[in-house]
Amino acid sequence: MTLLRQIQAEAVGNDVDLAVILRKCRILAQRLKNEEFKQWVDSELDGYPNINALPKYRIINCLCFGKFRYLSQGGETKATQIPILQVPQQYRRILFTMPFFDSVAVLRNLVSRMTDENITTGWEADYYALVGRGIFQGCELVEAWRLYPKSRVVGVLDSVRNRILKFAFEIESENPNAGEAIMTDTPIPPQKVEQIFHTHNTNNSTDIFTVTNTVGTTTNDLDTGAATNVPACYYRVRLVP
């Protein structure tokens, strides 16, 4: 069985560890002499360094909840959903999305260890002071967290499998033996590999392996400004099992 056929067969199901498939993709990238595909594979295996490097499918929208203290009478509320429109626009993208920087191995381990169907990650403490008194009149935010279903993490992993499968099929359509090439060969012209890499041929959406400098979202209320403007603490968000 050729390398391309191995990758296709293993990417179709969930029996083979995704990291194993990606390592085979790393071999394929080397034989195709394609640096962008190689970089994408390495990032999925080792993790992404910051928000600018993340593909769109690794950034999801979240609900946010919090506990509030009554300023006049004392006491605290129970966990209450935080309305996105009550948060200043410049902070919505930061607080109501969750970026996944970790490797596919870490994400898979997180999913396998989770017994609850939902995952929570706390807001960074800086934002309590920045937005905490403007959400509900007469209340101060004392604790806040993002909430998203475990299925969204599974969806990130499925997105990686789907991209691998599509890329392998399209490469095979150009040269079924491209994965068997020796290092001195060029099994497919470089410009054609680039075209395959950057074309999603099932619809009119963006690249198969899109890397963006803005946070992609389908929620109109989220700010879509440049990610380079977000505070440094946002770059350090990591999943904590």
Short description:
This protein is of the alpha+beta class. The chain is 39% helix and 13% strand.
How would you portray this structure in words?
39% of the residues lie in helices and 13% in strands. The protein has a domain of 93 residues. By secondary structure, it is α+β, with helices and mostly antiparallel strands.
Topology:
Blueprint: H1 3-12, H2 18-32, H3 35-46, E1 59-61, E2 63-70, E3 80-81, H4 89-95, E4 97-99, H5 104-113, E5 118-122, H6 126-131, E6 139-149, H7 150-174, H8 190-197
Secondary structure: helix percent: 25-40%
Shape: elongated
Which class do the helix and strand fractions yield?
alpha+beta
* Portion in beta strands: 5-15%
Regions with little confidence, pLDDT below 50 for 5+ residues: 200-241
Number of strands: 6
Terminal residue distance: 38 Å
Q: How would you spell out the order of helices and strands? A: HHHEEEHEHEHEHH
- Based on CA atoms alone, the radius of gyration comes out at 21 Å
Main pleated sheet: 4 strands, antiparallel
| Overall pLDDT metric | 80
Widest β-sheet, arrangement of strands: 3-2-6-5
The tally of helices reads 8
